[in-house]
# Entry
Amino acid sequence: MLILSKATKKVILESISDKNMFLISLLSACLHAPPDAPTPAARAARIHAPLLVESNRSLVGMSVLVRGGSAADPVGQEGIGAAVFSAITHNPATEHFKKAGGQFRSEWHRDYGVLHYRWKAGTNLNKELSDLLNAQLTTDWKSDAVFDAVQKQSEQWGTREADEGLPSLLDAWLQTGLSGHPYAHPVRGSQKSRAGIDKDKLDEAYTRLFCTGNIHVAWAENKKPILPQNIRNTLNKLPTCTSEPPTPKPMARSTQPLLVVLESNGSGTHAFTALPHRASYRITTPEDLAWGRVLLDNGKGQGPLHRALAKQAIEANVAVRLFPKGERWRQPLLQIEVRTQDADPVALFDTLVASFSSLQQHGWSPRDVHREKEHLRVKGNANSSRLRLESQLLANVFGPSPKATLETLKEDTARLLRQSVSSDPVTIVMQVGNAETLLPHAQKRGFHTQLFKQGEWE
# Structure
């Protein structure tokens, strides 16, 4: 029977959007255990105490987070976890739940997946929810219908790069520091890795993921949230976990600059890197890290990297992702992805190297900080609120929620960011159509290089 311990939390969230509210709270609760948390063996023996959310929002409901994610896929079966989650997501019973007024969606990531169930406040869909949850958790993995559905769904997945023998930029970058580690393979695998999946392996993957110790539940109501007994009964039917989800090892520190080149038949010239975090430095507050992301890529094309690309007449889409601590994948401070249509690979490489070197040596300029202060004074905190919602989901997994607001911008923010960025050599991954001129150029600049042609990546 599900145990409601003193650790059960009651949270009032009034300022977060419906679609983010439950998952933000759920991730924070289940991935940041208190000092007196149960031992791994104790955690595996029961479902975690639910997070109870009291909310005045128009949508209420439940989220079920499953630890493990694609990192739990066995070697040679990459993508099997995604296949299980896909079959549960597309269970025919979801249509009945939706016709009754419910909403359902799911997410699948490297170290967790989430099932979201929502309905309008004031309506009672407990029976419909219990029926759907029971149908999903009692899927007959040995049936031809389920297996055929899984195969059809996987054919629609966007795994073209992996199917053609090239990883995504992020996967290739992870491989440089986590070679052979399950966190470094494609989240949905490839056609080759999924080809060996059969009914028995689907059943084994479901049992490995959907077991008591992996399950975290959040329940939200307008008043006095209590997880209904019929839902508890359904969840209590899950078996006890026999193993812990994978834990990522620290990424190896770079000793020399590295350029990994993926030579592809696809269009465009793309690049990915991350500014390494100084291992010996503990940044003062998470808000400083949030400002690092804003100052580097503020969405207005005025950050230092935007300016450097524009100076070289390179039209590019720049995306910056924030990982405050990198406790789970050991990811550095800021991940940067640059995508272009037809940029010269050598010009793009030189621009990136110069920009990253400047940021590592000099950090963010007072001009960048001043520009953002003035922007927030004029526009208020609307932009920073958007960034908070975007970053808080992952920030709650890795640590306190950073907020890039005018109140959290300090005069020494640029100095703090400069101190937090390591001067270690960077690793850059580039996808290009032809690497003939790029490789010797990078080698002359002191970079160690690795070349993978399409179809060569394993």
Q: What stands out?
A: The longest strand covers residues 59-67. Residues 1-36, 381-401 have pLDDT under 50 and may be disordered. The chain is about 40% helix and 15% strand. Residues 345-362 form the longest helix (18 residues).
